[in-house]
Amino acid sequence: MAFVQVAAGSVHSLVLTTDGRGFSCGINEKGTVPVQGLEAEGTTDTFSEIVFTTDIQRLGKIVQITAGASCESIFHVLDNLPNL
User: Fold this and answer.
1) Is 35 a member of any domain?
2) How many CB atoms lie within 10 A of CB 35?
């Protein structure tokens, strides 16, 4: 598995793989670590894959990630969008 991007908030981190999968770890402050099985305000020091809904998956692979201090993790799905 190869990583193409890393993003860090104040208490959580995200990584993006070359095949468009996102992984996250840290303190789930206000949902900043959107991984299955992690309770609100829970914490994990192991990167876990973020599972997206079918509607999001249909848009294509994730091509960029962003994280900020105490804010939601942001994933940019641009792969299959039509040219605007």
Assistant:
1) yes
2) 19
